[in-house]
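Morning - zinc ion inputs below, output right after.
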Amino acid sequence: MNQSVPAEGTAAARASQRCAEPECGAQYRLDERLYVCPRCGGLLDVEIEREGLSRADELRAVWRARLSSFDARDHSGVWRYRELLPFDRDAPVVTLAEGNTPLYDAPRSARYCRLDALKLKHQGCNPTGSFKDTGMTTAVTQGLVLGVRTVVCASTGNTAASLAAYAARASLLCAILVPRGQVSHAKLAQSLDYGARVLELEGNFDDAMRAVRELAEDEAIYLVNSINPFRIEGQKTVAFELTEQLAWGVPDHVVVPGGNLGNSSALGKGFKELLDLGLIDRLPRLSVVQAEGAAPFARMFARGDRATPDEGLAPDEVLEDSFRPVERPQTLATAIKIGAPVSWKKALRAVRWTGGRVQSVSEQEIADAKAIIGRDGIGCEPASATTVAGIKRLVAGGFIRPDESVVAVLTGHVLKDADYVINYHRETLHTRDRSPDKTKEERRIKGTFANSPVRVKATRGAILEQLSRAGHEEFSAGGLDCVDEA
Ligand SMILES: [Zn+2]
């Protein structure tokens, strides 16, 4: 199964792995099974040499033509861009037709953020309902290229569900490590159904991540967390697809949720590659939004902002110097409940390349933003809604101007965490902050835009009365003018 000897002229022939630490920069072959640089412990990037690649207009034409092709790889929004992926032409591609996700206009969310317009790129419309699929297709394919038998990951739920599905497609053994009691039912259900061995660990995601990294030292086991550079390669194609959907135009801002920070890293890499290849002529500002209770990256940025010149350090040095993991991360947006994100250095690089910001938002802001996105007819999981909450703040703070073009990346489907949605609308949603000084009432998330079910007698009259009342409420609210007061 080892197909690591590349054919001439393919992307794999021109690619290698390189340490992302600027002062190291060590280079390794693609078929070396590495997660971090053996020399310095730094994260690895896959690097594809530009020499031998087609011109920008030729690449655009090839990618466009594939939209009407019958080749299974062309039905994937990832493999359609395979000139920029580090694989041979005959690589054993494992695909579930991922990618090709919609880019929606979201007028109500735009008004809520006080923007003229806002677009939502919904990565929750992937086969397993989250953005993870775009990276899992390439990571599991690389697993086959390397001839591994078992794939593992630590997960807050979405990575687990995605890996379980792709491992099943590839007939690989799959083990997933999840923090016990902290994964939504839907995500757990997916992993079980796809046949993964689910190991529930005591502790939080960061503990699971530590355990899985130790496990991966075993030769037979392949680790596919976002520390794996082949995950990032698939995920970077979101930047390609998004830009293509805008007729190769570039938005002023792209905003993503921040958990383990692999996604921000991947988007940054994707946009940078497009710029280097002349496919776009500028970079969008890439901003990352974290939940207040799990915001080590945002806190680091805030410290950088406060740094004064007389500390004798450049702002960049202040940043790198002041990254501190959060010991006990807390947020109901479980997909980003991560205190020690492994990809923070790559994400920092991406935010710097593009001149973006890092923002944190409260649990209440996340919940309200999620409900507003819903009123645009678009369902997402709580972590995704950090974007709209963050954009609202960035507009209020003047970093985003109302007339600028903005795209928020939604990372997970609304059905990934139905309990959260129901509790918000029934006004029974509480944060899990167990500190003794907070009463249950103080931990309650207000249902600002709650839409709770109504009990009605099963008669025509009673139902009509309810409908007329609902119509009146919607009319007098001007179709959600309440968003303006929020
Ligand atoms: Zn290194």
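Note: The pocket of zinc ion is lined by residues 19, 21, 24, 26, 37, 39-40, 42 (CB under 6 Å).

O.
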